[in-house]
Specification:
This protein is α/β, with parallel strands linked by helices. The protein has three domains: about 1-235 and about 410-435, Rossmann fold; about 245-405, 3-Layer(aba) Sandwich (Rossmann fold); about 445-518. It is built from 16 helices and 15 strands. The longest helix has about 60 residues, at about 445-505. It is elongated, with a radius of gyration of 37 Å. The termini are far apart.
């Protein structure tokens, strides 16, 4: 099995998929860049095929600078913040596709490498279609594919493969739920149009035999699906392991108040300085202990109850019985871990899908959201206290956790089963809808609509012609009947006039019919 991975993303989630497939006896190869952030070159589970580019295209500063510009724009005006976010996202996508093209070009021009890959006789390509390098390479090698997908370059993966009625399916970036009135549906339509423009400008969609979608419907809004979509949301989640001794003692020292865990993910170092100080001040006023994944200069207002760490065992902390709330940026992995362990969330969305993710949890009654650009101490304190003191949030999240874990098969085992299914059957064409082979006018039944319209027009035209002909006949008959009646009535009136004159004057009037002029 060949994995085609990008610099900034790890579909293995700490080698869980790789180790599971390896335990089933599969031989794995991973294509990676030399400066890959997450995919290590040496692993007991796979062989690395490392590609070295002439220059570095993507660094962490790309995301940090984008977030800073977005937050500055949000402070000035929400509309400006939205426009800047769209502009920054398009810029990031362009850089990612440029790096992907450079990676593919380097590989395809290396004849020795391509010969080696072809001689290995791979059976399957597993890749993320957000950056379509793996798709292109799989087509070149004529390999069946399995997609590990959540988001595409232009939005949520479902929009590429399933019917997605925008009347109740919120478009990514809209910040809407599946309950929309007239204004919300109008806004959703506008976002859909913007996404279509982005799609046609930046991405050529490519579709595979099978999609492994990192979604679970306790999190995602209900929507139409397809048989070749296999849902594996939270496949990286697992029961919590014991914490290191020092961290475990800190958690236990919180007593009945418990602990708040905060992390903004791996791509973003932190928020603006004034916002970090506001959050630190709010933490210092709370009786709970705080574990904060933090990189950078220590806030001056930090309280003694807050522990700053450059790295945290996030899953193990969220699964600890002392954890009461999770302050997060809204990344998919962290939110699924919060759902898995039943921990309510306070969201500070920054970029990409994070706003949509927090909106989905808000709609479930398990989270609150704040504006990261303008968050104050009082706002943060009020929201966090609400989550901690209102039992509704924890009860709703524990219900979601129970629903999420009530399943016949763990998502990781489901993913491995379907990967092996594609391997055994050399693809899964029977799951692929005929829609991919249809033209646009056939898919939307525009030809059927045109045929029905033509029949309707012909029928109406025929009825109208018959009606016109009938009206003409009736009119002609009326004219003929009217003329005859008028002649009779005129003759009758003439006779009556003659008789009246005859009676009144006693003038003998000759019989005109009998008289003849000689």
């Amino acid at each position: 099995i060949m994995f085609f991975l990008t610099t900034s993303y790890d579909p293995f989630k700490k080698n869980k998929v790789a180790s599971k497939l390896h335990s089933h006896g599969h031989e794995l190869s991973v294509i990676r860049l030399t400066d890959s952030w997450f995919i290590q070159e040496n692993s007991p589970y796979y062989i690395s095929i490392t590609v070295k580019l002439k220059k570095k295209y993507i660094g962490l500063d790309l995301f940090e600078n984008a977030v800073q510009r977005i937050l500055e724009a949000r402070r000035k005006c929400p509309v400006m913040g939205l426009l800047v976010q769209m502009s920054e996202l398009i810029g990031i996508i362009k850089v990612a596709h440029t790096a992907n093209c450079a990676m593919l070009t380097t590989m395809l021009e290396n004849k020795d490498l391509m010969t080696q890959i072809k001689m290995t006789n791979y059976d399957l390509m597993l890749t993320d279609p957000a950056i379509p390098g793996g798709v292109i390479l799989a087509h070149h090698l004529q390999l069946p594919m399995v997609y590990n997908v959540r988001w595409m370059s232009f939005g949520e993966g479902h929009f590429s493969i399933t019917p997605s009625p925008i009347s109740y399916v919120p478009v990514p970036g809209s910040g809407l739920t599946d309950r929309m009135g007239l204004l919300e549906r109008t806004c959703n339509l506008l976002h859909y149009g913007l996404n279509l423009i982005q799609e046609h400008w930046l991405v050529i969609p490519m579709y595979s035999k099978l999609w492994l979608v990192r979604v679970d419907f306790v999190f995602e809004f209900p929507r139409p699906s397809m048989p070749n979509l296999i849902y594996i949301g939270s496949f990286q989640c697992r029961p919590a392991n014991p914490l290191p001794d020092e961290l475990g003692e800190f958690m236990q020292s919180s007593g009945d108040h418990g602990v708040v865990v905060m992390s903004l993910g791996t791509l973003i170092a932190g928020l603006p300085r004034e916002v970090m100080e506001a959050i630190a001040t709010a933490f210092a006023r709370m009786p709970q202990k705080v574990v904060w994944r933090f990189i950078g200069e220590r806030p001056s207002s930090l309280g003694n109850n807050t522990l700053l760490l450059k790295w945290i065992p996030q899953n193990d902390l969220l699964g600890h019985p002392k954890t009461r709330a999770f302050v997060a940026h809204g990344g998919t992995n962290g939110l699924y871990e919060a759902i898995y362990h039943g921990v309510p969330v306070l969201g500070l969305p920054l970029l990409f899908d994070q706003l949509d993710n927090i909106v989905r949890l808000q709609a479930r009654g398990v989270a609150r959201m704040l504006e990261a650009a303008t968050c104050t101490t009082e706002e943060f304190l009020e929201a966090l206290r609400d989550i901690l003191e209102n039992p509704m949030y924890r009860q709703n999240m524990q219900k979601l956790s129970s629903l999420h874990q009530d399943r016949p098969l763990h998502p990781l085992d489901k993913a491995v089963y379907w990967i092996e299914f594609v391997l055994r059957n050399k693809g899964a064409p029977h799951l692929r809808a005929e829609a991919y082979n249809m033209s646009v006018y056939s898919y939307y039944c525009l030809d059927v609509a045109a045929l029905v319209l033509l029949i309707l027009l012909l029928t109406l035209g025929g009825v109208y012609t018959i009606w016109i002909q009938r009206r003409k006949r009736e009119a002609n008959k009326a004219v003929r009947d009217g003329n005859k009646k008028a002649v009779k009535e005129g003759s009758k009136r003439l006779k009556e006039s003659i008789n009246a004159l005859k009676d009144s004057n006693n003038i003998p009037i000759p019989n005109l019919r009998a008289s003849k002029i000689i």
